[in-house]
Structure of DUF2752 domain-containing protein:
Amino acid sequence: MSMDDFLWKCPYKKYLGIECFGCGAQTALLELLKGNFGKAFQTYPAIYTLILLAIVGLIYFLTKKRSTKN
C-alpha cells in the first residue's frame, strides 16, 4: 500500500474528467516532505508560492491576534 492510496481524489477530475487548479498539490506536498524539491515543483509549480502565502498568513494571524489583546 502506498501513500497515493490515502490521497483525496479531486471531484472535478473524478466526475468531469478535467483537472482543477489544485490538482497535484497533495502529491507535491508529499514530494516536499520526502525531500524531492524538483519533483514537487514539476508536479505542482505553485506549491512554493502557496507555502509562502501560508507562512505569511500565519504570521499575520498570530501578530494580529497578539496586538488585539492589548
About this structure: Residues 11-68 form one domain. The two ends are 51 Å apart (CA to CA). Residues 5 and 14 are 15 Å apart (CA to CA).
